[in-house]
Amino acid sequence: MAASKNGQYRISYKLTDAAGDEIEGGYLFTVVGEGFDGRDYRFNHLELVPDKREYAPGDVVRLQINTDRVGSTVLLFVRSTNGVYLPPNMLRLKGKSTIEEIAIVKRDMPNFFVEAMTISDGNVHSETKEIIVPPEKRVVNVDVWIIAKTAQHCYGRDRVILG
After folding, report:
1. What is the C-alpha separation between 39 and 123, in angstroms, rounded?
2. Residue 109: how many CB atoms within 10 A of its CB?
3. CA distances (Å), 94 to each of 25, 72, 88, 130, 157, in order?
4. What's the predicted TM-score (pTM) here?
5. What tens digit of pLDDT does each residue of 102-136 get?
């Protein structure tokens, strides 16, 4: 499937079981290109959408940030860990959507988090997204050394000698 222009699209599929019952599933996605600002589309209060499922050092995350209000201000916290935050990036959206690029470095392995917050209609909205950066090698070689200890009982004595 190829989208010919920017926009918000929905793929749906209907299935009918042997009893004649019908069920429909759907997926909503956005195609972003030159000049896209999302102002004509519907989003949740705050959404964080990375462009890929996983990344490697040297890659760049193209994080789509969507809000439900034109002109929102979003605070983006990159690489937050255990409630400790670096100063946020303050993003002032021209429409309802923007793309923020985040370079992946080796210390991002195994994964890191991005968090965002915005205020809309007097309510604070926050969203957290884990960015997946698998270890370079997914195989762990483990050597197990068994040190045998033998027990000897000395008859007539109340002790055990381990050797």
Report:
1. 21
2. 16
3. 33, 8, 19, 26, 87
4. 0.73
5. 999 999 999 999 999 999 989 999 999 999 999 87
Tens digits of per-residue pLDDT, 82-94?
778 889 999 999 9
Contact, 66 vs 112, CB < 8 A?
no
Instruction: Supply 152's token pair.
Output: 């000897």
Half-sphere CA count of 90, side-chain side, radius 13 A:
2
SS3 of 92, please?
strand
Residue ranges and CATH numbers for the domains of the chain are 7-134 (2.60.40.1930)
Helix (H) or strand (E) holding 124: strand 123-132
Torsion, Cα of 68, 73, 78, 84 (10° steps): -110
Q: Is the peptide bond before 110 cis (omega within 30 degrees of 0)?
A: yes
- Measured CA to CA, the distance from residue 71 to residue 48 in angstroms comes to 17
